[in-house]
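Take the subject:
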Amino acid sequence: MKPKIKLVGGCASSFVSEVISEHTPKSGNDSSESAVSGSAVAGALLEQFLATIIRAVDASAGIVRVLSPDGLVLRTIGSAGLPAETSQSEFVVDAGCGVCGKSLIEKTVESSDADFCMGRYGAKFFGDACKFVLAVPLGKCERKDEPAGVLTLFFADKKNISEEVKRTLVTYADLMCIALKTVWKNEDGYQTNLLAERQSIANEIHDSLAQTLYFAKIRTSLLLDALKSDNDLLAFKCAQDIEEALEGSQKTVRELVTHFRCQMDARGLKFALQKLANDFITRSNIALEFDDQVENYNLPLEYELQIFLIVRESLVNIATHSGASRASLSVIQNNKQYQFVVQDNGGGVASGAPPEGHFGLVIMHERALRIGGEVEVESLQGQGTRVQLTVGVPEA
């Protein structure tokens, strides 16, 4: 029986972040001002919606606001048709302001003349183009702690605000709410992934580079003590340890850079493994049999990346340390599990492989941990090495 090392991992940790955007208006010309806050995608989306709505109901201008996290003010996230000066003054209003506040609170379509708006600014607002105001709630358009929003349209003539127009605007508001929720969800997902990537980099540095440097620092203190006491033997030993630690740190930095600059094929794991196999044959002069029996991988991107890196590490070990003339890479799917097997006919564990091989095994173990995988390594002197990674398909 070959000796077996079994490395079993649990599910990867998830990182959740909450990011509240600060909204700032954009300046524009008098004829068509667009004050968009948040992402460029959300801004462009709102511009298209508002332009369509304004044309459809013969309005003069439109503005979309959402409630601030503290519930005290309504902030503009998009507008169209407003002059620049009006857009600036309307950017933030009280949550209970006029028909907009009433529509927000009562969740109903509200309309009135523009006297209240004109009175607030001591002017004619923006002239004859705005004589009447119509406010439509966006429903429960939640983003973080913002429970709702309001679509406000401005009209030159009250006769344009018919019951049919109100019903049409309710439909528009519902569609706008759905679209905004989708955009915000994608933005939040991007932020979460970005923070997770940063956390992953921090973990890698802490678990490898930081510990090695700390060891070198301790040895440096001991070296100084040895020099003060003229203990040449201890000083020589400490100097050797420091040199080895620095060499190890340099190697770790190279590995971290390689990992975080990993250029896995953008088309997915299937293409990436094929390219990996082709490159291995070209660069190592070792015959490699590649057998991929999986037609379509049903795995998240993070899973595919970690699998790719584990397989690559296994092939690098074969090319560097095994002394093999033949190797194989096979992939099979068994129910809801994938198995990736890398095998060679090299010298096995007693082939004189340097300590780096053990470090690579630890790295593979850590990567398996992140995706709930299991790595098994079987090896005997003169009989080669077999590495098997088993990964389950995560539930949706």
